[in-house]
Amino acid sequence: MPRLCYTSYKQLSISLIVILIGVSLVGCAQRRQPRLSSPSSAVNYISMQPEKKTGVIPIPEKLPCFRRYQDEISYLKQLLAEKDELIRSQNVRELDQAQVLQETASEVSRTKSKLHRLATQPEAASKIAEVEVAMDTLKQAMLDESDIPLQSLAQRLLDAATVAYRQKDYSNAMNYAAQSRELIDMTSNSARKLQESQHTTVIFKTPIALFTTRADNLRAGPSDHAKVRGLLAKGTSLTAIAYHSDWLRVQTEDGRFGWIQNTQVDVRISIPDFQD
After folding, report:
1. How far apart are CA 151 and CA 178, in angstroms?
2. What angle do CA 99, 103, 104 make, to 5 degrees?
3. In percent, how much of the chain has pLDDT > 70?
């Protein structure tokens, strides 16, 4: 009986020692930090650490420039569409204005032709006298060198009106006198060369018969940079219906409309025995 008690006590002591050694080993293992033998183990170790509440540094987006460029491209596309629409509407307005100009000039031409055919001797004499006064006033004015050819054309038309009157052709007398007055008014209109008046087109009350003095381009607008609609050969007959600065809006005998500089034309006079 005493031997059995001794044996049980010995086994119990050994068990307690084993338990104490195990607890000590576990505590040491928990206090020791693992070695970071490789980058992967370092990552694993960091992932095992508790998350600190000091705040997370945000990772910047990788595509801020792309988004900014996308916005800028969208804005430029919208701006381009607006400009295209503005150009289209402007072209429509120009076409409408050209149509109105042609219709107005045609109506004026028909009305003036009727009046001139019915002209009497007193009416022709009065008209010629009126234009002579305007010509004298123009000659006393200081003109630009570019206006001298216009004055010369106006004088030739006035001379033709005088010759027609002497021949008792009162219709042509009235017609040439009226054309002369149109060129006199154009020459004396100093505002037509001002920058703020460059967009103004003035319709002739009486269309002017002309012909080209040399080959030149018929342009879509009153500018050297305007689109060329065709080539006018020397001696091409034209009818001027309006002017814009130093450009004349003309119609050809085959129905084409366009612009030509006033220095490239001469007046067309069809009076027997008329000399320049």
Report:
1. 14
2. 115
3. 57
